[in-house]
Design goal:
mainly alpha
Length: 187
């Protein structure tokens, strides 16, 4: 590479090529620069000194973490035991968990109790309590709807359960007030 405008003599060119390409900065220059930048607020001050090795397992943190994990495990275990015992108690009270014949007898008893309660309501002669009779009717229809839904789940093709659910849906729609008519005014 010769440059026609180069005014260096071959000796000067050789002297430049003999110079080192990189020069090592003096020792401590980087530390002095960092300290000066930190003092002026340009560079953040580290939380721990640069040359120190972080301690991985401090005893206080280890004991705290172990205590927290034991407490978390114990609370999860206690919650599981409580919920399991509660669901087992409910299942025993409802009569679940037995054979199909036992569950069928339970449904028969409950259904008989439902029909007996409805018969007692229909025998009530007090006609002055209209709100009470309406509430009793709504409660009876809600129970009938829930029973029909369960029968439809048990036997999906049962036409009687489908008819009961259809009739209850139509009754609910008829009881709802009509939707307000919206008038659109065009300008």
């Amino acid at each position: 590479m010769t440059d026609p405008h180069d005014e260096l003599t071959p000796a000067e060119r050789q002297a430049f090529q003999a110079l080192p390409l990189e020069a090592e900065p003096p020792k401590g220059l980087e530390d002095r620069t960092v300290a000066l930048l930190q003092a002026r607020g340009v560079l953040a001050v580290p939380l721990r000194p640069v040359g120190t090795v972080p301690r991985r397992w401090q005893p206080a943190w280890l004991v705290g973490a172990l205590a927290a994990s034991v407490a978390l495990f114990a609370s999860g275990f206690a919650s599981g035991q409580y919920l399991g015992a509660r669901s087992a108690t409910i299942a025993a009270a409802v009569g679940l968990g037995g054979s199909i014949a036992e569950r069928t007898q339970h449904v028969q008893r409950t259904g008989s109790d439902y029909v007996a309660a409805l018969a007692a309501l229909s025998q009530e002669r007090d006609t002055s309590d209209i709100a009470g009779r309406q509430q009793a009717t709504q409660t009876a229809l809600s129970a009938l709807g829930a029973a029909a839904q369960e029968v439809a789940r048990l036997v999906p093709d049962d036409p009687l359960a489908a008819a009961v659910l259809r009739g209850l849906t139509e009754r609910r729609r008829a009881a709802q007030p009509p939707a307000a008519q919206r008038a659109v005014v065009w300008y």
